[in-house]
Amino acid sequence: MIERGKITRQVTRCTNCQLCHHQPRDAKPVPATFPKSPIFAVVGEAPGPDESLKGRPFIGASGKLLRALMSDVGISPRDDVAWINTVSCFPNKDGQIRSPSDVETLACRTNLLDQLAAAEVGYVLLVGAKALHAWRSDLLLKDTHGQIGIWLEAWVVMPITHPAASFRKPSFKAEIRRDLKRWTDIAYGGDDPLLYLDDGCVKCGVSGGEALHRDRDGLGWCNKHWEKSKHAWEKERQKWGRRLVEPLTMEF
Ligand code: SF4
What we know:
The chain is α/β, with parallel strands linked by helices. The protein contains ten helices and nine strands. The strands form three sheets. Strands 2-1-5-7-6 form a five-stranded mixed β-sheet, sandwiched between helices. Strands 3-4 form a two-stranded antiparallel sheet. Strands 8-9 form a two-stranded antiparallel ribbon. The longest helix is centred in the C-terminal third of the chain and has 19 residues, at 171-189. It starts with a helix and ends in a 12-residue tail after the last helix. Bound molecules: iron/sulfur cluster. Iron/sulfur cluster binds next to helix 4.
């Protein structure tokens, strides 16, 4: 078991990428926060200006909205959730927020996986595209939000749209609330989570029935997209330097 204090120190002292040298004045790395016994972890993209000044994750406008939507569906953001970021330092250009690069995401991967292990949870909510891509960079959020998958044979995951998207397009708020409601059924319901695996193709939604291929991450593929996806999977494996996915059919 990874001790939480140790991983917090690891993150706050980390110099694995250039981001720590390009922080605005008074900004600091933002390690995960853990309640005593979380039900699940949230993985977000990266701290913003508010988070990096206070050293706490998910306290900016998006984090506040996500916490409010969680409370709406019966989740306690304070007691049930370990809050973690894909990248722990504020990615910025001259102090303005930007998305973390692939190099920065890869550099912070050990911190991410160590913090997930320290949370000691079986369920992980992936918030936004960067978090989805920490699991599977060959997938799009529009195809996968609200779907269940398996990460490294360790965690049941569900991607959801980043709450910041609803500031531009308010209809995303209802979609996120719907996905969170489904998440509570899965993470709190006590059923076998594999019962919730989608029976359509993750790319086109076509129901494959008997012909559906199921990959090791629990995702379904129709014949056409199964053939196309094999190369993307190989690239994924090389990118992360460890086995994430394999083109085989596994019995779930
Ligand atoms: Fe280390 Fe992550 Fe900060 Fe880069 S972003 S310096 S890897 S904590």
